[in-house]
Amino acid sequence: MSAPQPSPALSLLADWLAAVGEALAHALAGGVARPDPDLPDDLDTLAQRGLDLGLAGGAGRLEAAAQALRARLMAPRGPVPNGLVDALQRALAWHRLATRQLALARARAATRRGAAAASPPPRPRFSGDAWPVGIELDGEAAVIHARDADGAPVLVRDRLTLDADAPFDRPALSRLCQARLDLRATLAGLLRFDGHPIAARTAHGLALAPAFDRVPERLSLAPGVDVPRPGAVPLAGALTPEGLTWTGPAGPVLLADSPALALNAVKLALRGHLAFDRALWAPRGPAQVLLAAQTAHDGWMYPAWDPGAVRLSPAHLAGALADRPGDPAARYRLAAELAALGGPDPGAPPRGDAGGRLAPDRGPLRHRRPPPGGGGRGGGRPGPAARPHDVALRQAALGRPDTPPDGPAAWQAVALALADPQPHARALAGLVQAWASPPTAPGPYRVAARTLLLAWQAHQDAAIDDGDVPGTLTEVRDWFQAWATALQEGGLADPAAWLALGEAHAALTDGPFGLPGEPGRLLPFTAALVALQAGDAAQAAAGLALIRRAGLADWLVG
To answer: 57, 175, 307, 374 - which has most CB atoms within 10 Å?
Structure first.
């Protein structure tokens, strides 16, 4: 008996979806800045065919995309408007779901043999409101923990295209909602479902997943309404040499760690009280996943996923750093960095000759000053205290370039030379040649120094090649990311080494040697917090400067 032929309806739908996918790919691949003039008409034609097939949802998204493209064609100058990108992304999200649904329908049809099989039973559906009480993230996979009107648990599964370092900072593209959404606002509101198919029934409640033909309505709550979170209890933490420990009303709680949770815990410790007034968690294997937490200062938040969930007021920050030891010059730099972040002076700036000449701590590459622990003055050429490091640099480049030193002196020598590279051009060229091949097991200072050095060399090459940043810089960034991650996971305790890595990272992202795009922002923030937690006044000032230059002040002060 021959296998049944695909139904004409499925074939028509497949042809239509293939044409839609080709049009959207053409628009997104290269037609957004300068759209093809025929694209709007093509999308309108496809939208009409979608209406003929009974697919009003997809047709509406294609019509919106066509209108946005026409508006762009009428005003081609200037940046691409957000509305155009949003319209195309909504159409793309719908297309992905429709394509998946078609594949499932074809798979069901292909398994039938002989006489027409009985229609499958209708899928159970959910209609009603779901109140988000917390969230867990794993890459693009998201699970929103919610409660229905009767208080029963509902798990809303989604796929989000978001910033892995800061998922709450920018709108995320949601497959569930087939639109861009503000994740924080969505979690603080209400999801209203109408006939949404139930993906599964689990021990933890109903599980809803993105659907081809249903989109939940997102509603905001009236001001002052606090969503009830059953099971939320106080949770206290402690920073120990072994890591973070947590204790609830019933005893120790094993929480799954995350970079964002570690950062927020350090900020709570700097605030003087490492605890949440209420916290809600859910079991995941042997550990618990922190879904949401609350403090009187921050309200409800998601500290396991949002690096900026906990903020320090300027008074908290100044108070936490007031006892940092250091010489008058370091105290002056700390006071200047606190003022730049909006914080009060933790102590009177030193009077006299040194305080009148020193400038705020601003980083070794962008503003020509020595790195943390360097001996330069005022951000100009290295002063007498820097000369031994310059000697070390020349020895490494000209004496035995095959065995360059590893340690703070090598890092400081390279950073000082790059702050004013012209008189050190020969020594720097020697180091570029010596460090062209990646070392097999470098320490943190070598990783930071080699990254700065090769990034500088890549931009020297770019100056010759009409400003095109060579691919070498991408290779340097990938190498740096791999080693920095390995060093972090291996347990790096030296605050100065953390700052060296953070400075190198900042140079790759926002300095004159910067690479377009962000390879991640958690490393410089972690480096700065290590310096704030364990360092003296000089390290604290360098940490604050690193946070400010990397554009991460809003993760700290608020």
So the answer is: 307
